[in-house]
Amino acid sequence: MTGAFPPHTAPGRFGIVNLAATAQRCAATMPVAGLCNPFTGAASLAPLAVLVDHIAGFANHLRRPDGHWTVSSELTMEFTPDAHAVLAADPATPVLAESRTVGAATATSLSACELSHRGIGIGVGTVRTFYIAVSAPPLPDDAGPDAPAPVPDALDELMAVEVAEAGGPGPLLVQHAGPAVNNSMGAVHGGVAAAGLELVAAAALNTTRADGPLHTASLRVNYLRRLISGGRAHYTATALHSGRSSGVADAQAFDADGRPALVGRLTAYL
């Protein structure tokens, strides 16, 4: 499908618009203006995980076998050293992502996408998905609520997350229940969950820095199980290394029952 998505879906909530959706090329755009890390207040690359998971996952989805559905198992993002500066030069222009499948599909499928802004490359992403047999496809409710709530502007409100009180061993981000950030299977959208990992990992490296922020260069995410929101669902991270010009942090997401659902590693540079 091409065009915009309903605002009660995760792609619609983040303003994603499909430009192409064929076996040869999938492409979509997403605005990022004003989307900031709620811990640091700095412009964030985290929401681009929603775009990567959407359009790279879409390429995998198009070649699914009959009677099967797709579930993300891995997601990666790699950004150019000037990605933040390129976006800051014209924040109102949406980011473009173009994806294609890579190699053959078996029980899993791999796709890659290129991220660009005003024709300038700012990064690449990959999504690996499992193919699972289903009796009927889990489709979202196209009608949506009778009176949908306005889509918020702040990233934490878009993601239905909240910064927890300080005092713990690391940054803590609570994932509230919010149907609009769920996928069609009732779990938190894979890109939203990956974005949560980026936010806490970046915060773990930057919250107390006095010599300039470290900018996200790469994020690698593994999906262990579905992330069900509400209850005890949250994201947290630990800095493994925070040097003068680079840093590495590990992040985890826990589901409503407190079980680990995602793990990720972020690398950042000055």
From TrEMBL:
| Gene3D superfamilies named among the record's database cross-references | Hotdog Thioesterase
Keywords of the record, alphabetical order, are:
Hydrolase
Q: Which residues form the Thioesterase domain?
A: 185-259
Pfam family membership, one: 4HBT
* InterPro entries per the UniProt record, alphabetical: HotDog_dom_sf, PAAI_dom, Thioestr_dom
Q: Which GO terms describe its molecular function?
A: acyl-CoA hydrolase activity
* Full protein name: Thioesterase domain-containing protein
Query: What is the source species?
Result: Mycolicibacterium canariasense (Mycobacterium canariasense)
Lineage of the native species? Bacteria, Bacillati, Actinomycetota, Actinomycetes, Mycobacteriales
